[in-house]
């Protein structure tokens, strides 16, 4: 029997083009992307979670922005069933507008928006300098998911537009490699900073 994500979309033909992310984007066949954190204590266990489950988990707690939890009310409640239905409805919108498998669109968005380099501060002789460093594959995915969810929440916070629409727009724009996607523009900004800090 063939398992389809949300009992609708096939995971079988999904291709991860980026060789650096291939091991870290899990698109195995699964019906319900909810494992309840069974790999939480395992080192790099999150790489074995389905990539859509990682998006659902990130939507529950989108993380810090400028050392604060921003936009942490409304849809962001830590309720798995709420974020599960948000992602399902978001994927419906993506399929309706792109006429493609939404899992493939989402994987393409991650590949396009994952930064390859970033900047870190190093201290040398009492002075702090910016230093360009390569971004680890696991961190690349973590950064993309965090930026996607924070952008989607920021665009719907206190407005009439829903989180489903803003998240779908962000994923579709990132999949196209469009600069209207905050995630893609942030990636380009990070890589520009790293280039100047070489």
Q: Examine the secondary-structure arrangement and name the CATH architecture.
A: Orthogonal Bundle
Separation of termini? 52 Å
Q: CATH class, please? A: Mainly Alpha
Q: What is the H-and-E element order?
A: EEHHHEEHHH
Task: Pick out the low-confidence regions.
Answer: none
Average of the residue pLDDT scores: 88
What is the CATH third-level topology name? Answer: Ribosomal Protein S7
Number of domains: 1
Name a few traits of the molecule:
mainly alpha, Ribosomal Protein S7, two-stranded antiparallel ribbon, 45% helix
In brief, what are we looking at here?
With 198 residues, this protein is mainly α.
Q: How would you describe the overall organization of this protein?
A:
It contains six helices and four strands, in the order ββαααββααα. Helix 1 (51-60) packs across helix 2 and helix 1 crosses helix 4 (137-156). 45% of the residues lie in helices and 10% in strands. The longest helix has 20 residues, at 137-156. The chain has 198 residues and is mainly alpha-helical. The model has no long low-confidence stretch (mean pLDDT 88). The relative contact order is 0.15. The protein has a single domain, classed as Orthogonal Bundle (Ribosomal Protein S7), CATH 1.10.455.10. The strands form two sheets. The protein has a two-stranded antiparallel sheet. A two-stranded antiparallel ribbon has the order 3-4.
